[in-house]
Amino acid sequence: MERIWLENYPENAPADIEVPNLSVYDFLERTADDYGDVLAVIDGELSYTYEELRDEVRRFASSLSGLGLRKGDRVALMLPNGVEYIVSYFAIQRLGGIVVQVNPMYQAGELEHIFRQTEPLIFIGEAKQKEKVQSVKSPAFGIYHGHLQLDENEYDLHDLFDQGNSGSIPETVIDPGNDPALIQFTGGTTGSPKGAVLSHYNLVGNVYQTFAFTSDTLQRPGEIFLGAAPFYHVLGMSSVINQGVFAAATIICMKKWTVEEGVDIIERYRPTYFPAVPTMYIGLLRYAEDHPISLDSIKAMTSGSAPLPVEVMRKVEALTGGVISEAYGLSETSPTTHRNPFKGKRKTGSIGLPLPSTECKIVDIESGDPLSVGESGELWIKGPQVMLGYWGLKEETDEQLQDGWFATGDIAEVDSEGYFYIVGRKKEMVIGSGFNIYPNEVEGIMYEHPSIEELVVYGVPDPYRGETLKASIVLKDRETLSEAELIAWCKKRMASYKVPKIIEFRDSIPKTSVGKILRRELVKETMDHMEKERSQ
Predict the structure, then answer these.
(1) pLDDT at residue 190 greater than cutoff 70
(2) pLDDT for the residue 191
(3) pLDDT, tens digit, for every residue of 191-201?
(4) pLDDT at position 531, please?
(5) Domains (ranges, CATH) in the chain?
(6) What is the H or E stretch that residue 32 is in?
(7) Beta carbons of 216 and 33 less than 8 angstroms apart
(8) What three-state secondary structure class fits 338?
(9) What is the rounded distance in angstroms from the CA atom of residue 140 to the CA atom of residue 100?
(10) Where does 144-231 have alpha helices with state H?
(11) What is d(CA 528, CA 536) in angstroms, rounded to the nearest whole number?
């Protein structure tokens, strides 16, 4: 596809970049050399300059080396946001190890899946995770943060921080283009999670792509990053840790997002950059209805993981005075591929323009033939941020990666100015009475209803149509709306075959820890209910 998007690029943003031959750890070395006295991390009462952070990382790398960690070994990292996560992350990278990101909320069955696939040499987590980890029966060394009775092959995290010798770390040669830095498991919203293998080149490249595109807004040094997005997720890992350290920014760690604590931190530390997910913004707006708050330090925000309603975007920008850049990315793309400019033309509802050095095309789902402007098809991406493949899954890798192109599984369109729009997921496409229906498109229209706080649209079996649409809806406080009223409202705004035939009002919608809606849970819930009705 011709790169028509370049005409709307931010001023001074290049069409292409050259990715330097660096490892992820080199970000920390360079920043500590250039800005050693700059405050690097604030974690509650703890704070570290970049020089202090590097020294802590070096000592822990020495301890990990003493435990036998070598290049290519996997380390399962299962910590909440905090300095312990950042130190562990860079210490593993220093030795050429591979970080396996693990959600601290995972239970034994989910851990077993990840441990079985990646076979980590070492596990790093909180003391309260010990029982879950032991039930998996992994041979990995256990390193724990917190007070507990240590057994054989178990160590205290801060003891290893203190005992290491920063001057005795073996040299490790990293080949950025071929050596994995990270295994990021996909969200598992549509099936069993797969481990996307991201190289040093992938992660470094995505940081350089992002800063080349946002150089008119984000500076090095001088920024304060609010680290509320989970570090174990690809969004927090890239947007906070990698980008923050690269930019010599001060990273404020939030172990768990709550609106009250978030507002307190924003007012106290006055961050300038806030990478977040829609649920965080919605929470801030609700809180602001009853509390006077000051958020005017925030000049730049990003939104990912789920669609951001237009009304929410406008209200948050009015509340902060900052700009939200809607973006798009995946675990398999390190993660960012598209972004709306902070300055220049932004299109609400669009994922924006491809980042520098990113190629995109939209192809027909059936034939794979390239499609034109305005036509809906699967989005394919090629660029330095595209993963090496899925860990241990050659068949799945070959299916998703073809000649360097990654087939995203997302249905998209591009307009005449090069702005891309996600219409839906290929696997979530609903075929009702022979019509192809994309739930995201229907959701976008329904979000315009003034009484709706949150919703999700999905397909369920129907004996007549094959599939039919169901909408699960959370109403705003003190709002009322009937099924008949909403269906009548929809019929005036979309083709009749797109109007949900089943409307469900509920108090909340199930989501992952980063705000991604779990459609599969809603589908299962509906299927179980239908089965129960049939058996009665």
Answers:
(1) no
(2) 54
(3) 568 999 999 99
(4) 80
(5) 24-37+47-173 (3.40.50.980), 429-535 (3.30.300.30)
(6) helix 24-35
(7) no
(8) strand
(9) 13
(10) 157-163, 200-213
(11) 13
Both tokens of residue 415?
Answer: 């307009």
Whether the CB-CB separation of 328 and 352 falls below 8 Å is answered with: yes
Q: How far apart are CA 440 and CA 429, in angstroms?
A: 9
Sort strands 430-432 and 435-437 into parallel, antiparallel or unpaired: antiparallel
Q: What is the DSSP string of 41-80?
A: EEETTEEEEHHHHHHHHHHHHHHHHHTT--TT-EEEEE--
Q: Which amino acid is at 43?
A: D
| Interatomic CA distance for residues 94 and 65, integer angstroms | 10
What are the tokens at 9? 């690029």
The answer for residues whose C-beta is within 8 angstroms of residue 166's C-beta and 6 or more apart is: 55, 58, 59, 62
Token output for 36: 């050693």
Alpha-carbon gap, residue 223 to 213, rounded angstroms: 16
pLDDT tens digits, residue range 85-102?
Answer: 999 999 999 999 999 999
The CA-CA-CA angle for residues 181, 182, 187, to 5°, reads 160
pLDDT tens, residue by residue, 280-314: 898 899 899 999 999 999 999 998 766 677 888 99
Q: Give one word for 433, left, alpha or beta, with left for phi > 0 and alpha for psi -120 to 50.
A: left
Sign of CA dihedral 236, 237, 241, 246: negative
- Rounded Cα distance between 421 and 444, Å, is 11
Please name the residues in contact with 29: beta carbons below 8 A apart, sequence gap of 6 or more. 54
The vertex-6 CA angle with 3 and 8, nearest 5°, equals 135
3-state secondary structure 287-322: HHCCCCCCCCCCCEEEECCCCCCHHHHHHHHHHHCC
Closest-CA residue to 266 (of 217, 299, 242): 299
Question: String of b and e for 509-525 (b: at least 16 CB within 10 Å)?
Answer: bebbbbbbbbbbebbee
**Residues forming beta bridges with residue 129, ordered by sequence position:** none
Secondary structure element (H or E) that encloses residue 384, with its range:
none
